[in-house]
């Protein structure tokens, strides 16, 4: 007869380790979610409530007036109500009217970057993954090496080229430079993904009558949906959040993007935190919506090629 | 109609390694040709060159009279079945089979008719709406066959299509492939490392090694008259017994000697060989014992007795070598016993030890 297996009682070091992990997780959670929660909460508060001590994590008198003020200034309409509180229009930033146009600019640039990224990176990645040509490895490393250079080092050369081309203060200048910055990563992710797909699929499709382009469009692209989503989302977020290049290349509302306008709200003599945070919430909405919509694909896309299948 | 002709064809990679070299081969219309050899012998490369999936770096490949070297895969009238099946995971069985026809803009009614016909022949009609991931290995295999069949190609290529199936299914599929060839009446080129598949299916077998052809012939030629030690050892199960020794001239005849073992060759074999006193390798297949009692014999001590269903194999120690032979199932032989087994003298294979080439062929 064998003895029944008994689980050893948890020892003190194990308990301490578990407690330590739980505390560390909680701290990390607060660190990540705290600012987001405060942003959301304060966007629904009046300026007076925001600066009250202790702060109110849950608004006592939630208001949408900050958002109404954003829409009203953007559309050039009179502010919803007048009064001493910034949330009701007391201290609207001088560049507030540019917020909605900037959001549109950001959207145009980000959508263009997603489309162009896919247009450029998909064929490049397919070629790197499935076509054996001289210099293939060198090309892949060359593309990746461009990402070793920090963006700050590229700002001045980019600026000189953009100015020479007469593209300063245009959305096109942002699209061109963001594309240069995001494409290498997109190529890398997609190459890893395509490499995972069996060579025999490529061969079977060619024997079945597909040209190389048709193999890509009819066989590989439908299978690459997770990687395409991951790459698209990465390109969108990179473009949506970009600040440095936009600060250098844009000067007027014609081309300024959301981060530039939101940042400009802090350069007035008085800062309206309620207005600023409402703008922050608006800036967060599109990426969050995209992330929620495609959440299922993101992880599988980003880990493509991480392990051999 | 498609005959395939290789003239001095080779495939050399940029690092200088030649996967295939100096390939001269004619494949007749409607022939079932099997490329047989171990891994890395160049058989799949040869098949891929026919398909247009591998660039030809030397020589000329023709389909009938047309030079095909630079014709891309999608413009060649070939269909191919892969070892991995290579079904499109996102398409249903129906769409997998129909894909090649869609690429060739076959009218929908005709496409549907052909797919349903192939599905019926392969008994996969109930699976048409499933995805490949929902099929067993055998079912995927049949879908892959169907995908190639519906195209009605001039050349049908198969790259180890049965390797991933279990043994019993493999034998059933062999019969189905043979049947398919009879029905389609088109040229089949089939790659395998499985000699049993090659012997069962082929009209002719091409045995390859290190990127070159070792021997071309009917299954009977290849098995009964191997031109090299390699061919002899690659075919046959259990593998042919190879005994190194000397060929000497004695009393007007030829005798194979290895230590105390002496096997006199029948006079007609001696006449074909002609030359003597050379170092040779004697090839003896397991089934080559059991001749007339007056013929040469193989003497040795029984090391192992291995019943195998319909057969009885015994392992002998002969002059320090292990020799496996097949004997009458009813034979009463026990381990440790000394036996003297009659040989079929005409079936013995003799090879030059240095070159590995058959002495019969050299004569």
Helices and strands in order:
The complex is a heterodimer of chains A (309) and B (363).
Chain A: H1 12-43, H2 47-50, H3 65-75, H4 99-130, H5 136-145, H6 151-164, H7 171-196, H8 199-207, H9 212-223, H10 225-241, H11 244-249, H12 258-264, H13 273-302
Helix pairs in contact in A: 1-13, 3-13, 4-7, 4-10, 4-12, 7-10, 8-9, 10-13
Chain B: E1 4-12, E2 18-27, E3 32-36, H1 43-51, E4 58-63, E5 66-67, E6 78-81, H2 93-103, H3 108-121, H4 137-149, E7 155-159, H5 167-184, E8 187-192, H6 195-201, E9 204-209, E10 212-217, H7 219-224, H8 229-234, E11 241-250, E12 253-258, E13 261-264, H9 267-273, E14 278-284, E15 297-308, E16 311-318, E17 321-327, E18 338-342, E19 349-352, H10 359-362
Parallel strand pairs in B: 3-8, 3-9, 6-7, 7-8
Antiparallel strand pairs in B: 1-2, 1-4, 4-5, 9-10, 11-12, 11-14, 12-13, 14-19, 15-16, 15-18, 16-17
Helix pairs in contact in B: 2-3, 2-4
Q: What attributes characterize this protein structure?
A:
heterodimer; A: 309 residues; mainly alpha; MetI-like fold; 13 helices; 0% strand; globular; B: 363 residues; alpha+beta; Rossmann fold; OB fold (Dihydrolipoamide Acetyltransferase, E2P); 2 domains; six-stranded mixed β-sheet; five-stranded antiparallel β-sheet; 10 helices; 19 strands
Describe this structure in words.
The complex is a heterodimer of chains A (309) and B (363). By secondary structure, chain A is mainly α. Chain A has a domain at 96-302: MetI-like (MetI-like fold, Orthogonal Bundle), CATH 1.10.3720.10. Residues 305-309 of chain A have low confidence and may be disordered. Chain A has 13 helices and no strands. Chain B has 2 domains: 4-233, P-loop containing nucleotide triphosphate hydrolases (Rossmann fold, 3-Layer(aba) Sandwich), CATH 3.40.50; 239-362, OB fold (Dihydrolipoamide Acetyltransferase, E2P) (Beta Barrel), CATH 2.40.50.140. Chain B has helices at 43-51, 93-103, 108-121, 137-149, 167-184, 195-201, 219-224, 229-234, 267-273, 359-362, and strands at residues 4-12, 18-27, 32-36, 58-63, 66-67, 78-81, 155-159, 187-192, 204-209, 212-217, 241-250, 253-258, 261-264, 278-284, 297-308, 311-318, 321-327, 338-342, 349-352. In chain B, the strands form 4 sheets. Chain B has a 6-stranded mixed sheet with strand order 6-7-8-3-9-10, sandwiched between helices. A 5-stranded antiparallel sheet of chain B has the order 13-12-11-14-19. In chain B, strands 2-1-4-5 form a 4-stranded antiparallel sheet, covered by helices on one side. Chain B is elongated, with a radius of gyration of 24 Å. The chains are: A mainly alpha (309), B alpha+beta (363). Chain A binds chain B through residues 134, 198, 200-201, 203-211, 214, 219, 222-223, and chain B through 14, 48, 51-53, 72-74, 76, 78-80, 82-84, 86-90, 99-100, 103-104, 147, 151, 157.
């Amino acid at each position: 007869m064998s003895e029944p297996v008994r689980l050893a009682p948890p020892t003190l070091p194990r308990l301490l380790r578990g407690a330590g992990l739980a505390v560390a997780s909680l701290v990390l959670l607060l660190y990540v979610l705290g600012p987001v929660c405060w942003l959301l909460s304060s966007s629904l508060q009046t300026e007076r409530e925001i600066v009250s001590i202790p702060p109110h994590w849950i608004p006592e008198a939630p208001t949408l007036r900050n958002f109404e003020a954003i829409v009203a200034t953007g559309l050039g309409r009179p502010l919803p109500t007048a009064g001493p509180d910034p949330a009701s229009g007391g201290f609207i930033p001088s560049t507030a009217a540019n917020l909605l146009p900037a959001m549109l600019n950001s959207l145009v640039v980000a959508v263009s970057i997603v489309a162009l990224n896919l247009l450029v990176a998909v064929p490049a990645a397919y070629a790197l993954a499935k076509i054996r040509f001289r210099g293939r490895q060198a090309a892949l490393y060359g593309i990746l090496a461009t990402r070793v250079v920090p963006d700050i080092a590229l700002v001045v050369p980019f600026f000189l080229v953009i100015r020479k081309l007469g593209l300063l203060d245009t959305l096109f200048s942002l699209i061109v430079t963001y594309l240069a910055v995001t494409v290498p990563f997109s190529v890398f992710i997609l190459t890893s993904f395509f490499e995972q797909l069996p060579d025999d699929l490529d061969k079977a499709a060619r024997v079945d009558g597909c040209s190389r382009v048709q193999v890509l469009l009819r066989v590989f692209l439908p299978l690459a949906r997770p990687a395409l989503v991951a790459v698209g989302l990465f390109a969108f977020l990179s473009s949506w959040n970009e600040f440095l290049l936009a600060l250098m290349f844009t000067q007027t509302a014609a081309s300024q993007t959301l981060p530039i306008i939101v940042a400009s709200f802090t350069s007035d003599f008085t800062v309206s935190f309620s207005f600023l945070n409402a703008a922050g919430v608006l800036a967060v909405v599109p990426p969050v919506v995209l992330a929620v919509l495609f959440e299922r694909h993101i992880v599988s896309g980003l880990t493509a090629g991480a392990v051999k299948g | 109609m498609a005959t395939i002709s290789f003239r001095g064809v080779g495939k050399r990679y940029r690092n200088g390694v030649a996967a295939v070299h100096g390939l001269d081969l004619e494949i007749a219309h409607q022939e079932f040709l099997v490329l047989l050899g171990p891994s890395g012998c160049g058989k799949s490369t040869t098949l891929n060159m026919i398909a247009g999936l591998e660039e030809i770096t030397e020589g000329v490949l023709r389909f009938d009279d047309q030079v095909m070297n630079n014709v891309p895969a999608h413009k060649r009238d070939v269909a191919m079945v892969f070892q991995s099946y290579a079904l499109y995971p996102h398409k249903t069985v129906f769409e997998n089979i129909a894909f090649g026809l869609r690429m060739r803009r076959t009218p929908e009614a005709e496409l549907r008719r052909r797919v349903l016909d192939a599905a019926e022949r392969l008994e996969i009609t109930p699976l048409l709406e499933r995805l490949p991931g929902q099929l067993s290995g055998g079912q995927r295999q049949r879908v892959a066959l169907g995908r190639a069949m519906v195209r009605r190609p001039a050349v049908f290529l198969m790259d180890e299509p049965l390797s991933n199936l279990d043994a019993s299914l493999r034998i059933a599929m062999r019969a189905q492939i043979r049947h398919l060839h009879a029905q389609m009446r088109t040229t089949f080129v089939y790659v395998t490392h499985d000699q049993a598949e090659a012997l069962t299916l082929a009209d002719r077998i091409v045995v390859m090694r290190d990127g070159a052809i070792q021997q071309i012939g009917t299954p009977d030629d290849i098995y009964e008259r191997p031109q090299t030690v390699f061919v002899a050892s690659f075919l046959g199960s259990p593998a042919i017994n190879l005994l190194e020794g000397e060929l000497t001239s004695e009393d007007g005849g030829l005798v194979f000697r290895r230590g105390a073992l002496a096997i006199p060759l029948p006079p007609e074999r001696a006449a074909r060989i002609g030359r003597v006193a050379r170092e040779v390798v004697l090839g003896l297949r397991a089934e080559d014992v059991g001749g007339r009692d007056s013929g040469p014999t193989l003497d040795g001590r029984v090391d192992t007795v291995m019943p195998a269903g319909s057969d009885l194999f015994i392992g002998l120690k002969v002059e320090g070598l292990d020799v496996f032979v097949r004997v009458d199932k009813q034979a009463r032989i026990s381990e440790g016993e000394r036996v003297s087994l009659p040989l079929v003298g005409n079936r013995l294979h003799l090879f030059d030890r240095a070159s590995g080439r058959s002495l019969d062929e050299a004569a």
